[in-house]
Design a protein that fits this description.
Helix content: 10-25%
Number of helices: 4
Low-confidence stretches: 21-28, 125-135
Order of helices and strands: HEEEEEEEEEHEEEEEEEEEEEEHHEE
Distance between the termini: 17 Å
Shape: globular
Largest sheet: 8 strands, antiparallel, barrel
Strand order of the largest sheet: 1-2-3-4-5-6-7-8
Number of strands: 23
Mean pLDDT: 83
Number of domains: 2
Radius of gyration: 25 Å
Length: 347
């Protein structure tokens, strides 16, 4: 167990005294010490509707990150501007929107910040509750994570967008993709659209530093048209020109943003956001395309979330990343987060 120097302990005890005095006058406030799932400890002070904090995470004698924040609280909603300070190794900044519920604070929005959930530990800092042991956390570069995913998942990942035979397959484990038909009525007849045998042509994992996310791009083949139009009730439903086939323009990529999660005391990933890159187009019928794009994207988003967040897919991602975790001697994890080009895993 690492001993604190006298001046460090004195500093913490002074903070504790201030926090304790304030918490006695504001028993329902958020003043106190909070532990976050990014492995850090946050010393929070509330004065009326003003909120300030100092947060840091240490591994042994090394400060991994250190930040300060300032903002306001209204009811259970908290808005903070935060910035990393030179005590740590990270140099991020941004705005966080948080929500308080009892002794828990949850992140609602805010990119670039690794933490998602805070739990209140105490209103006081005393010599008996100061954590003097090093945090059992490891930072793994996002490059290493992406390299593993590209080596272990990418070769076996396949996807087909189709009305009756759509699927997602990872490591030869196939799951059906149930994309709904999209119906629009630009004229008196109802047109029905659906993906028609659109196959994956390639895929790639990468780290998006601006969004602070692991990203999977799935690129699809260009077959001239990707969405088949049918006009039921017309003379020739499958060839009627009043329901033109629709082309998915270049780059024809389904972009899936992934966030790390704890899965069976290890790591897996779940979908955070889905985007469709490349515009839909139909010759002479541009007015209906925005609504068609919206409805197609909604159907894709629902199915991608369902399949990628299923237990089977999360197990396959977990199997792929385990060798990397084993090489870092980390297991039985309790928290994981992404921040500043590193994946932080903590026991």
């Amino acid at each position: 167990m690492k001993k604190l120097k006298k001046h460090q302990l004195a500093f913490l005890l002074i903070i504790g005294g201030v926090l304790n005095l304030f918490s006695q006058n504001n028993p329902d406030g958020i003043t106190g010490i909070w532990k976050c799932d990014d492995g850090g400890s946050y010393y929070i002070r509330q004065i009326k509707n003003k909120v300030m904090w100092f947060g840091e995470k240490k591994t042994g004698s090394t400060t991994i990150f250190s930040n300060v924040a300032n903002g306001t609280i209204s009811g259970n909603s908290i808005v903070l501007d935060w910035v990393d300070v030179p005590k740590g190794k990270t140099y991020g900044k941004g705005t966080l929107k948080l929500r308080k519920s009892g002794n828990t604070i949850t992140k609602i929005s805010g990119s670039g910040f690794g933490g998602n959930r805070w739990s209140k530990r105490t209103n006081n800092v005393t010599s008996s509750n100061v954590n003097t042991t090093s945090e059992p956390c490891v930072d793994i570069s996002t490059k290493s994570v992406v390299d593993y995913l590209n080596r272990e998942i990418k070769p076996s990942l396949d996807m087909k967008l189709d009305r009756s035979d759509g699927f997602l397959a990872v490591n030869r484990q196939r799951q059906n993709l149930a994309l709904p038909d999209i119906k629009i009525s630009p004229i008196s007849k109802t047109w029905t659209y659906f993906f028609d045998n659109v196959r994956r042509s390639g895929c790639n994992f990468f780290y998006d530093s601006k969004k602070n996310a692991i990203v999977l791009d799935i690129k699809f083949e260009d077959k001239g048209y990707e969405l088949k139009g049918m006009c039921y009730g017309c003379i020739k439903p499958s060839r009627d020109s009043r329901a033109p086939d629709v082309n998915w323009g270049s780059p024809q990529i389904l972009r899936i943003f992934l966030k790390p999660i704890i899965y069976q005391r290890s790591i897996s990933f779940q979908v955070a956001k889905v985007e469709m890159l490349g515009k839909l187009g139909a010759s002479g019928f541009g007015d209906f395309v925005p609504n068609l794009t919206r409805d197609i994207m909604a159907g894709l988003r629902t199915e991608v979330n369902r399949l990628f967040n299923s237990g089977e897919t999360q197990r396959l991602f977990n199997d792929a990343i385990k060798p990397l975790l084993n090489s870092k001697n980390v297991g039985s994890l309790t928290s994981v987060s992404l921040a500043s080009r590193s994946l932080r895993v903590c026991k």
